[in-house]
């Protein structure tokens, strides 16, 4: 579980996060949504420890990040997996090398043990024959799956995903969403996803927080998002005609 | 003020490079890879340029020796002094600032743009140690490249002098051996080692702290070449004054 307590973050005169408090629960897919410039990426980078908030606390299962020593922070980071928007795979390494990288860096496993673990996670993300290919030789969807495999290879307690569906076709996007949800439940991890994709919101949003101008404007579940009267949320989520119709149908069904 | 802030950031970067070392098993393979990419892959251009510059120095000296009282073996002497004292350590380092420096800036800059550096940081890896330390160690082999440059430069001078009909081979070799000061070799290698550190770290700094996209990677490479060259030229002056002045 990640408990976020009143965090503030500024860059120069720009006050990006203006006091966000929320809780991300274990074993659930937690989604952060909001318009571009609402502070989603800065918020996610604060959760990852890449940015230090000026005020407030982020507590990971009882451990306050700001109070940890450098070594403890490094240990905590090894419990985090991250799937970046552009996958962020290492160009100079094969798929196998990318997934094996955290194991090589932080474990004392033998090469055969590492290879077995890499085989297992690549199989888990449905990538069987790509071990010796380089990231430039595989599709965007496959790159995302390699990034997920790399993120879970160390059995993380926390999984963060920044726009995991961006640049993917709708079918692959659904596959990636399902995979993240399955992994979250299977490994019982705390998953936080930063997304613009409303299909993801409807499909896997067990908890959704909506950021607006650096503030937490709304939070709830995917069912609650249908019923909410919050104008900012409805304007954002139901901006397309398709989603407006889906919402009307849902409300009619409920009545 | 910005320049001062950059100098401070550079100093902090250097300190971070030597903190929290990466596992030796991984670091060893990174160092081998960097030696291959920074040193071995540069030997071709170093040999090519050294040969022709040495040849041109010999020809220019020969063409300017109009006084019959000045011995022809001065061509060998002048080639040796030019190549060992300045051409090989300084001129080649500026070429390397372009070739190796822009490679370092663009490769690290691309990793920054594509969030690969963020990925390292999130995993708990000291990205500066992982990326920059192997380059610094690989550049410790740079004096070997400069030794080859010295040899090839003098050989180019000999070829141009002898086959151009400016002097005999014996004259050239006599010139090479005239007033030889072994400390000049030490001076050249001290300069080379310091320039090697500059070539490894300034481009890394520009790549690591760059912001923006692909266009900015190109701009960062150009900026890093300019600053690496400027620092080499200034250090060359200071080191020459300190070691030979």
From TrEMBL, chain A:
InterPro entries attached to this UniProt entry: AAA+_ATPase, ABC_transporter-like_ATP-bd, ABC_transporter-like_CS, P-loop_NTPase
UniProt keyword annotation of Acyltransferase present: no
Keyword annotations from UniProtKB, A to Z: ATP-binding, Nucleotide-binding, Transport
One GO molecular-function entry: ATP binding
Entry annotated with the keyword Kinase: no
Pfam assignment, any one: ABC_tran
Entries under SMART domains matching the protein: AAA (SM00382)
Protein name according to UniProt: Phospholipid/cholesterol/gamma-HCH transport system ATP-binding protein
UniProtKB/TrEMBL annotation, chain B:
Transmembrane regions: 38-63, 83-106, 127-145, 151-173, 185-205, 225-244
Domain of life: Bacteria
Keywords, sorted A to Z: Membrane, Transmembrane, Transmembrane helix
Pfam families the record matches: MlaE
GO cellular component: ATP-binding cassette (ABC) transporter complex
GO molecular function: phospholipid transporter activity
Protein name per UniProt: Phospholipid/cholesterol/gamma-HCH transport system permease protein
Species the sequence originates in: Maribacter arcticus
Phylogenetic placement of the source organism: Bacteria, Pseudomonadati, Bacteroidota, Flavobacteriia, Flavobacteriales
């Amino acid at each position: 579980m990640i408990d976020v307590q009143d965090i503030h973050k500024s860059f120069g005169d720009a006050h990006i996060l203006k006091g966000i408090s929320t809780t991300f629960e274990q074993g659930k897919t937690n989604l952060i949504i909001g318009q571009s410039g609402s502070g989603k990426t800065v918020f996610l980078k604060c959760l990852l420890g890449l940015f230090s908030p000026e005020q407030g606390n982020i507590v990971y299962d009882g451990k306050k990040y700001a109070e940890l020593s450098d070594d403890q922070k490094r240990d905590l980071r090894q419990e985090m997996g991250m799937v970046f928007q552009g996958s962020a795979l290492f160009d100079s390494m094969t798929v196998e090398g990318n997934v094996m990288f955290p194991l090589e860096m932080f474990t004392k496993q033998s090469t055969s043990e590492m290879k077995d673990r890499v085989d297992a996670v690549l199989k888990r993300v449905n990538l069987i024959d790509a071990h010796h290919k380089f990231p430039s030789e595989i599709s965007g969807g496959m790159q995302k799956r390699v990034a997920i495999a790399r993120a879970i290879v160390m059995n993380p307690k926390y999984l963060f995903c920044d726009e995991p569906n961006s640049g993917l076709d709708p079918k692959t996007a659904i596959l990636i969403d399902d995979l993240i949800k399955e992994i979250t439940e299977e490994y019982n991890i705390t998953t936080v996803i930063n997304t613009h994709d409303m299909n993801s919101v409807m499909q896997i949003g067990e908890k959704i927080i909506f950021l607006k101008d650096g503030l937490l404007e709304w939070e709830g579940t995917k069912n609650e998002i249908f019923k909410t009267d919050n104008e900012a949320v409805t304007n954002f989520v139901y901006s397309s005609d398709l989603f407006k119709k889906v919402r009307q149908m849902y409300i009619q069904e409920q009545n | 003020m910005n320049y001062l802030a950059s100098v401070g950031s550079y100093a902090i970067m250097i300190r971070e490079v030597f903190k929290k070392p990466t596992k030796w098993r991984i670091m060893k393979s990174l160092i081998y890879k960097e030696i291959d990419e920074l040193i071995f892959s540069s030997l071709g251009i170093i040999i090519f340029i050294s040969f022709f510059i040495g040849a041109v120095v010999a020809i220019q000296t020969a063409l300017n020796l109009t006084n019959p009282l000045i011995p022809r073996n001065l061509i060998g002497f002048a080639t040796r002094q030019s190549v060992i004292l300045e051409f090989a350590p300084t001129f080649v380092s500026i070429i390397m600032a372009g070739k190796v420096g822009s490679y370092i800036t663009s490769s690290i800059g691309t990793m920054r743009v594509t969030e690969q550096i963020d990925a390292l940081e999130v995993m708990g890896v000291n990205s500066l140690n992982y990326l920059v330390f192997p380059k610094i160690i690989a550049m410790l082999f740079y004096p070997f490249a400069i030794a080859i440059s010295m040899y090839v430069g003098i050989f180019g001078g000999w070829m141009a002098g002898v086959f151009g009909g400016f002097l005999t081979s014996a004259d050239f070799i006599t010139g090479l051996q005239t007033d030889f000061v072994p400390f000049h070799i030490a001076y050249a290698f001290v300069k080379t080692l310091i320039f090697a550190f500059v070539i490894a770290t300034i481009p890394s700094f520009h790549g690591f702290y760059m912001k923006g996209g692909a266009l900015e990677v190109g701009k960062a490479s150009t900026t890093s070449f300019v600053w690496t060259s400027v620092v080499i030229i200034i250090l060359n002056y200071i080191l020459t004054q300190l070691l030979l002045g």
